[in-house]
Amino acid sequence: MRASLIQIAVDLEESVNSRRERVASLVTAQRGVDLVVLPELWPVGAFAYQAFAEEAEPLQGPTHDVMAKAAAEAGVWLHAGSFVERAEDGTLYNTSLVFSPQGERSAVYRKIHRFGFDQGEAVMMGAGEELVTVTLPQTTLGLATCYDLRFPEQFRGLVDAGAETLVVAAGWPERRRAHWTLLAQARAVENQAYVLALGTAGTHADVPQAGHSIVVDPWGEVLAEAGPDEEILTVEFDPSKVHTTREQFPALKDRRLGLTPPRL
Question: Is the pTM value of this prediction over 0.85?
Answer without folding.
Answer: yes
